[in-house]
Write a structure and sequence with these properties.
The protein is of the alpha+beta class. The protein is built from 10 helices and 7 strands. A hairpin with a 2-residue loop joins strand 6 and strand 7.
């Protein structure tokens, strides 16, 4: 009986020792670890952290607007749910990126605005946009009467997808926006710039809003930007044909 108990005690003690070695990370525990488990553990420690959207854009050569002109305000509307989709689309993006040519042109527009109205600033609501986000926007409108306001990714998307378009408005020094007649993303005729005079005559937008829209277009055109007929807030630096031929799309 003593002999049997002695063997059981030894076995029990051996198990305790092994457990201590495993918990303390001793060489003995390392020997007991399987080769496959060790390889997985080493791979996990060497795995690179996933890049954020901002990091991917910067690595691709796009420019953070705040790096070229900190006076330009930024409030990305697709980082919030109060946009036409009703959803947050930019989960990790808070910075506005543009192609370097577009960033330089936006800086020029801001400088011109400050010459004309030192009390005002440009305020960016959207800039470079990955095609994956464009697809989500298209999915939200493709079966509605508003589909012509959003570029279909199957057709190459829009100028936002090349970092060559910007959605913006005018604001005061504290960031408060001034009257423009509608909110950004208003998908009605009230946003069309070729109807503004008539809309003002009909008092559907105010004369103040009309003057503010014209000021925005003046400074943007001065810097080489082209307005979009159906959206007072949207400006392109290049045509779609030029973008497809000479620039890379943002995946």
């Amino acid at each position: 009986m003593k002999h049997i108990l002695s063997k059981a005690a030894a076995a029990s003690m051996g198990n305790v020792v092994a457990l201590v070695f495993i918990l303390t990370g001793s060489p003995t525990a390392a020997k007991q670890e399987s080769g496959q488990a060790a390889a997985q553990r080493i791979a996990a420690t060497q795995q690179k952290p996933r890049q954020t959207t901002a990091q991917r854009m910067a690595a691709a050569g796009y420019v953070d607007i705040s790096d070229i002109d900190k006076s330009i305000k930024v409030s990305l509307m697709y980082s919030r749910a109060d946009n036409f989709t009703g959803r947050v689309l930019y989960g990790d993006l808070r910075e506005a990126y543009l192609h370097p040519l577009a960033a330089a042109a936006l800086k020029k527009a801001q400088a011109r605005l400050r010459q004309l109205r030192p009390d005002l600033s440009l305020k960016v609501y959207d800039a470079a946009r990955p095609m994956s986000i464009q697809q989500k926007m298209w999915d939200a409108v493709k079966d509605t009467d508003h589909s012509f306001y959003v570029s279909n990714p199957k057709n190459g998307g829009g100028l936002h997808n090349y970092g060559l378009a910007v959605d913006l408005t005018l604001c005061r020094a504290n960031g408060d926006t001034i009257p423009m007649g509608t909110r950004i993303d208003n998908m009605t005729v009230l946003s069309h710039i070729d109807r503004e005079e008539q809309l003002a005559d009909q008092k559907k937008i105010s004369r103040e809003a009309l003057a503010n829209r014209r000021l925005l277009r003046e400074v943007m055109k001065y810097a080489g930007w082209k307005p979009l007929r159906t959206e007072w807030w949207h400006f392109n630096l290049r045509s779609r044909a030029e973008a497809k031929k000479n620039f890379k799309v943002i995946k």
